[in-house]
Specification:
The protein has 23 helices and 23 strands. By secondary structure, the chain is of the alpha/beta class. The strands form five sheets. The protein has a six-stranded parallel sheet, sandwiched between helices. It has a six-stranded parallel sheet with strand order 14-13-12-15-16-17, with helices on both faces. Helix 3 packs across helix 17 and helix 15 packs parallel to helix 22. The longest helix has 19 residues.
Length: 621
């Protein structure tokens, strides 16, 4: 067997550059490059390998470890998990900065390969700089923190271990049901150690993503269940996108006159103009979708985890006769709500189920006229929200309406946290798939700007907009600089509402008068954070980083800024001042959050009583 002598780090990069996936006869190069920040724990190992192989594998310099990992996740999500990036860091704080991003990837089932540096395997310089010492177990390092948020974890203690571990890492990264964060911890001395690797280890590998077919018996059970129901409802999740099943979902709905609703991950699967499209469902759902959900006697959930937001904490589907058909490539998700499970690829399952239901002569009992009326009522409500005026300034929904009207149908918006996801899920109108990029599995503040950069890497020919609140922007905006460095233009639309207003609203809705969530100065009289709002010039901040920047306090200023930013050749930020509390809410939805069982505040006591009343109507599992 022919061999080649390489360091472990050099071998890892050489291996990664030969990994491909195949879906429906089309091959994709899987690992597109490495994002990294160097420190003593990786610069002389994987850093040297990247320098030596710089013409074989791309390198992008991150500015924050969590931020660059978010960008890598966004890239893979936008590419429907068919392509991905690896991320390298030093040990200790640099590595731990990626733990949050690992959670984002694993919760959302998005592939990302994390390569944190680690302590010396030899232990000669023990304790090395930035090493955490755990006296009870000397094998524990900071990187053990990745275990709960990784779908595969290993530490490469000898260079020859790489071969087995790297192949297993690719198994998980390319598994539609099990993918997420894969963490290979790389001790800094082992990165530099050489080994005679078999040349066969570096041969081109194609990982075939064979579509999982539904079991015939499972299809029959689903058909029997659906046939006895009159008011079915489709809930389309992110798996519809990843399976490339948007057309199948539309045809399925049309075949049987079934209303379509969407989760945050599933949104944009169907055009808002489609007569059977009723938008988001659940806590942040539309009034039309939530009313359909309340009456549905069978819910066909496709490619969704059925989280508390999609089910309104198990209160959305209130028909006592309701049953569930769960289509998901992951058997874990098919068991939720005690549904009839089809553990299969979404596209294949929809095709098989449609064929079987057509053979059975199935048709829902919905009347097109009543559905059209319900849809029109919600469209009218969105129109009202999009034109909502406020005497104190711009309302949040008016801003979203102006942005929605301005951007192109193929442009992509990116969002993750705060009050914006709720408004966008309800009122944002999409016509093309993959134009609504929402990270709402982990709802990680700070994902937005980094995510927009990742989406732009994936979609260089589209305009990409990060919709972000001031709180999220302050937490993490470092990859705005990376977008400038790489010449990948993004536009940041920053809605400044003076703090964490989403949680401020949640707090006040459960008995509080508001505490600790607004960006106010400390009052000299009360000693509390109840003074004036902090005056933060985000436009000046972006300008200092090298981006173009604009300010908007009126509709006219916003329209002008959008026009100018679109013409800019580099990344831009629009600092949009909005009135706090002008977001949407309600629409027959509910979210279960804890309320103090004992309190001196009467309003909190009332909120606790309301909570108990609502829980009495919720499903227990």
């Amino acid at each position: 067997m022919k061999t080649v002598r390489l360091t472990m780090a050099q071998a890892l990069l050489k291996f990664l550059s030969q990994q491909y996936v195949e879906l429906d006869g089309v091959e994709y190069k899987f690992i597109q490059g490495v994002m990294g920040i160097f420190g003593h724990g990786n610069v002389t190992g994987i850093g040297q390998a990247l320098e030596q192989q710089r013409n074989e594998i791309a390198f992008i310099q991150g500015k924050n470890e969590q931020g660059m990992a978010h960008a890598a996740i966004a890239y893979a999500k936008q590419k429907n998990r068919l392509q991905a990036y690896a991320c390298t860091t030093s040990i200790g704080p640099g590595a731990l900065n990626m733990v949050t991003a690992a959670g984002v990837a694993s919760v959302n089932r998005i592939p990302v390969l994390l390569l944190p540096g680690d302590i010396f395997a030899s232990r000669q310089p023990d304790p090395v700089l930035q090493q955490i010492e755990y006296p009870l177990d000397y094998t524990v390092t900071a990187n053990d923190a990745f275990k709960p948020v990784s779908k595969f974890w290993d530490r490469i203690m000898r260079p020859e271990q790489l071969m087995t571990s790297a192949i297993q890492a690719m198994r998980v990264l390319t598994d539609p049901a099990e993918t997420g964060a894969v963490t290979l911890c790389l001790p800094q001395d082992v990165q530099c150690e050489a080994y005679d690797y078999p040349e066969a280890f570096f041969a081109k590998r194609v990982h075939h993503l064979d579509r999982k077919q539904p079991a015939e018996a499972a299809v029959k059970r689903a058909v029997e269940l659906i046939r006895g129901k009159k008011k079915p409802l489709l809930v389309l999740g992110g798996g519809v996108h990843y399976s490339l099943a948007t057309e199948e979902a539309r045809r399925f709905a049309e075949a049987f006159q079934i209303p379509m609703t969407e989760t945050q991950a599933g949104k944009s699967a169907v055009s808002w103009r489609h007569p059977l499209s009723f938008g988001g469902v659940g806590v942040t759902g539309t009034l039309a979708a939530n009313r359909l959900a309340a009456e549905a006697d069978v819910v066909i959930a496709v490619g969704t985890r059925l989280s508390d937001f999609s089910t309104a904490s198990k209160t959305a589907f209130r028909n006592p006769e309701v049953a569930f058909v769960n289509i998901n490539v992951s058997p874990f998700d098919t068991y939720k709500t005690e549904g009839a499970g089809l553990a299969a690829d979404a596209r294949e399952a929809l095709r098989e189920l449609q064929q079987a239901l057509e053979a059975a002569g199935y048709r829902s009992d919905y009347q097109p006229e009543s559905l059209a009326q319900l849809k029109q009522q919600w469209d009218d409500e969105v129109n009202r929200l999009y034109l909502a005026e406020h005497p104190a300034g711009l309302s949040q929904t008016r801003v979203l309406g102006e942005i929605n009207d301005f951007i192109g149908e193929r442009d992509v918006i990116v969002c993750a946290a705060g009050s914006l996801p709720g408004d966008l899920h309800r009122v944002w109108r999409t016509t093309e798939p993959k134009t609504y990029h929402m990270e709402y599995g982990f709802s990680c503040m700070g994902y937005e700007v980094s995510g927009a950069f990742g989406v732009k890497l994936a979609e260089p020919d589209r305009e990409v907009y990060a919709l972000v609140g001031d709180g999220s922007y302050l937490m993490l905006h470092s990859e705005l600089i990376t977008s400038l460095q790489e010449g990948r233009k993004i536009t940041v639309l920053l809605l400044d509402n003076h703090g964490f207003q989403c949680i401020h609203n949640l707090q006040r809705g459960h008995g509080s008068d508001g505490f600790g969530n607004e960006f106010r100065s400390r009052s000299e009289s009360s000693g509390q954070l109840t003074g004036d709002y902090l005056a933060i010039d985000f436009a000046a901040h972006a300008l200092s980083l090298g981006a173009r920047s604009y300010r908007a306090t009126t509709v006219e200023e916003l329209q002008s800024a959008l026009e100018q930013a679109k013409q800019d050749p580099v990344s831009a930020l629009i600092d949009i001042k909005v009135v706090p509390g002008t977001n949407t809410g309600g629409y027959d939805s509910w979210w279960h959050v804890g309320v103090a069982e004992v309190s001196e505040q009467p309003k909190v006591q009332e909120a606790y009583t309301e909570l108990q009343s609502k829980l009495s109507t919720a499903r227990k599992w």
